Amino acid sequence: DRSPARGLGDGLPGTGQVVDVALYEAVFALMEGLVPEYDGYGIVRERTGNRIPGVAPSSTYPCSDGHWIVIGGNGDRVFPRLMRAIGREDLAQDPRFQDNPGRAAHQDFLDDVIAGWTSQRPLEEALRVMVEAGVPAGPIYSAAQIVEDPHFQARGMLETHRARLGDGVEREVRFPGVVPKLDRTPGGVRWLGPELGAHNDEIYCGLLGLDPERLARLKEQGVI
Fold first, then answer.
1. Model-level pTM?
2. Nearest 10 degrees: CA dihedral of 217, 219, 222, 224?
3. Do 67 and 119 contact (CB within 8 A), yes or no?
4. pLDDT tens digit string along 176-220?
5. Are 95 and 126 found together in one domain?
6. Structural domain harbouring 167
7. Which terminal CB of the chain, N or C, has fewer other CB atoms within 10 Å?
């Protein structure tokens, strides 16, 4: 008999507890007002792309260098700053846009105005203007931009491990880091998991009783 496995917390004082969460529940908790909108108002939210229903302007906008920027100028105080930053003082003073219901009613128009401005500037310039104006904004990253971002690197969000890819060659590949970060019991990656077919012999021969010669023929035939 083996002794029971012991964890880092076995020697700590206090009583432990079961942490129970399903995979879908983690996503469900991020669904904003989906349920109260339905239960309180009978509204069934449909696909809205990058917009937030009833909150405007808040979306993603194209830049002249092929990148995209997300801008959230939906607050009553933020919206005038956004309009002034893009040279539209007239819209900052327009009575139609003084509150969110008014802006939401003209969401297409406002998005077109903002996109017209961002599409004439590269991402870096558009971000700089938004930051200086105090308007929430950020880049839409591709994987190539993520791995080069100094903040991701400084936070330890990129880890390099040896991995065998589809060509059979083992090389160093970057993977996402471990979250959350615990100061006393930091997490780590011990291995990347078994390669494809790593347990074939154990399963087919050991558990299913297939003889090694038969298994070899099936592999040659491409069945396994």
1. 0.73
2. 120
3. no
4. 999 999 999 999 999 899 988 899 999 999 999 999 999 999 999
5. yes
6. 145-176
7. N
